Amino acid sequence: MSLLAEQVFQVTGSLGSIGYGLAAIGPGIGVGIIFGQGVQAIARQPEAYGVIRQNMILGFALTEALALIGFVAPFVFGK
Amino acid sequence: MSGSALLAADSSCHLNSGCGFPAPDATIFNYDAIWQFDIAGLTFHITKPMLMLWIAAAVVVVFFVLAFRKAVVVPRGIQNIGEYGYLFVRDGIARDTIGVKGDAFVPVLFSFFFFIWVLNFMSIVPFLQFPVTSRFAIPLAFAVLVYLLWVPLGVKRQGAGSFFKAMTMPPDVPKAMYVLLIPIEILSNFIVRPFTHSVRLFANMFAGHMLIVTFSVATWYLLSPSIIGVLGSAASFVVTVGLTAFEMLIQALQAYVFTLLAAVYINDAVNAH
């Protein structure tokens, strides 16, 4: 049984790239929501462009941090 | 082995010539010392990124000294550009984020913004072609500077008790929740904050440089006398040019984001909330 499990669940190759793919799902959705809502807000209130853009980029930067930590992790823990 | 030596060794590799794709890895960010010397038993290595750091500092200082050396009421030429940059940082970052108290912090934010932008921009300057901020020590040093600015500043302006209370105990929360919230807030505001602040800049520049190098190597590797080789090489070249344009956007954006976050942290320190 354990031999079977070893053979079935053995993963070879670059696990880091799979990890990054998983890490990018959440931030991908988050960044999409942020820019989508940001563009909608600008379309509704073009006069508030400056404030909306600033907060949009701030939210984007905070969300993106997760993806970037995911990107760095394989390099840090890879070897 | 330094990055350029690594690429040179693989430069005879082409499609169908029997060797695999020489994918660039993290070693392309390591440079051999150009010059080294010892001071008090420590060996100092002067590398290409180190030299570029000095060049960037000189570029920023010289440019703005020239711009504001003979400042006149109606600006002409280079002073226009200098004032535009200054007003962007003052109105777009300092005043929008910190308010009227922000004017005192314009010099530090201004220095961060333009220094980081020039460091990032070196990624696409011919012959330099390396983003200095993709060496982690450099953005880390910037983030530590910002950290050492806003934490003591908050203690000084608000008093240690109310500053740490404001930073760790969000208002209007049931008392029982503080058991959970205080450790999370300490972790996110005082421990992870300088880390994400620097990693954001570092990882963006690291990833951007890696992408450009990968497609540049692909352009060269795929160049071979076959239809798929020629088409693939041309496509990689177009992607390289497109990514370079995209990187220009990212470089300015990351310099802006770093400065904006520095302003947000300073705002936490100077404006009690």
Question: What key phrases describe this protein's structure?
Answer:
heterodimer, A: 79 residues, mainly alpha, 3 helices, 85% helix, 0% strand, elongated, B: 273 residues, 8 helices, 68% helix
Give the gist of this structure:
Chain A has 79 residues and is an all-alpha fold.
Describe the structure.
- The complex is a heterodimer of chains A (79) and B (273).
- Chain A is mainly alpha-helical.
- Helix content of chain A is 85%, strand content 0%.
- Chain A is built from three helices and no strands.
- Chain A has helices at 2-9, 15-44, 49-77.
- In chain A, helix 2 packs antiparallel against helix 3 (49-77).
- The model of chain A has no long low-confidence stretch (mean pLDDT 84).
- With 273 residues, chain B is mainly α.
- Chain B has one domain (3-9, 31-270).
- Chain B has helices at residues 3-9, 48-69, 78-98, 106-121, 137-158, 160-168, 178-222, 227-270; strands spanning 35-39, 42-46.
- In chain B, strands 1-2 form a two-stranded antiparallel ribbon.
- In chain B, helix 2 (48-69) packs across helix 3 and helix 5 (137-158) packs antiparallel against helix 7 (178-222).
- The termini of chain B are far apart.
- The model of chain B has no long low-confidence stretch (mean pLDDT 88).
- Chain A binds chain B through residues 50-51, 54, 57-58, 61, 64-65, 68-69, 71-72, 75, and chain B through 26, 92, 96-97, 196, 199-200, 202-204, 206-207, 253, 256-257, 260-261, 264.
Shape of chain B: globular
SS content category of chain B: mainly alpha
Q: Give me the oligomer status.
A: heterodimer
Helix content of chain A: over 70%
Apparent shape of chain A: elongated
Count all strands of chain B and give the number: 2
Report the portion of residues of chain B in β strands: under 5%
Radius of gyration of chain B: 23 Å
- Written as H for each helix and E for each strand, in order along the chain, the element string of chain B is HEEHHHHHHH
Query: Strand order within the widest sheet of chain B?
Result: 1-2
Low-pLDDT ranges of chain A: none
Query: Would you report the number of β strands of chain A?
Result: 0
User: Class by helix and strand content of chain A?
Assistant: mainly alpha
